Amino acid sequence: MRLGRSGMSKQPHHLAILRDHRSARIKSLYEYSPLSDIDEIRLLFLSAGKGASVVECTLHHASASDSGPYEALSYTWGADILKPIILNQRVFHIRANLASALQHLRYLDRTRILWVDSLCINQADVKERNSQVMRMGSIYERAVSVCAWLGPA
């Protein structure tokens, strides 16, 4: 059990981070590790969950030519409204439309492996972003399926 600011806390640590994510004390925001090879991509491992519970996921580096099965997600970025998720046990803010997609697309009982452009590409690294965008056709082509997110029903 973790101690919160006011003593004992029954909330998992990541929920306390989400609650306090704007606090200057929180230094656990996610930072990308660089891709080490021209053939390398990141895959998103979306943890099981349901309903409005916090989206939790991890990014893993993989060889694009030998990554194993994954699905690619196609969606619109939508309005510039940000929602927090837990990415590699760190707070990360994504657009609300993607947060909604991930909440709806996660399985109840197992991890789902996805390639999602705004998460799997370090958007702050212009060199990486340009390189990965040039490869998006082959990334989508190698996916076992492409899921198109049009929004909640």
Low-confidence stretches at least 5 residues in length (pLDDT < 50)? 1-17, 20-27
Mean pLDDT: 85
Q: End-to-end distance, in Å?
A: 38 Å
Quaternary organization: single chain
Q: Name the strands of the widest sheet in spatial order.
A: 7-6-4-3-8-5-9
Structural class: alpha/beta
- Please provide the ordered H/E string of secondary-structure elements: EEHEEEEEHEHHHE
What value does the Rg take, in angstroms?
Answer: 16 Å
- Residue share in β-strands: 25-35%
How much helix is in the residues? 10-25%
Number of strands: 9
Number of helices: 5
Largest sheet: 7 strands, mixed
- Large-scale geometry: globular
Notes on the structure:
The protein is an alpha/beta fold. The protein is 24% helix and 28% strand. It has helices at residues 13-19, 96-105, 117-120, 126-134, 136-142, and strands spanning 3-4, 7-8, 40-46, 56-63, 71-74, 82-87, 90-95, 112-115, 145-148. The chain has a seven-stranded mixed β-sheet. A hairpin with a 2-residue loop joins strand 6 and strand 7. The chain is globular, with a radius of gyration of 16 Å. The termini are far apart. Mean pLDDT is 85; it is low at 1-17 and 20-27.
Q: Any key phrases for this structure?
A:
28% strand, two-stranded antiparallel ribbon, disordered N terminus, 153 residues, seven-stranded mixed sheet, 9 strands, alpha/beta
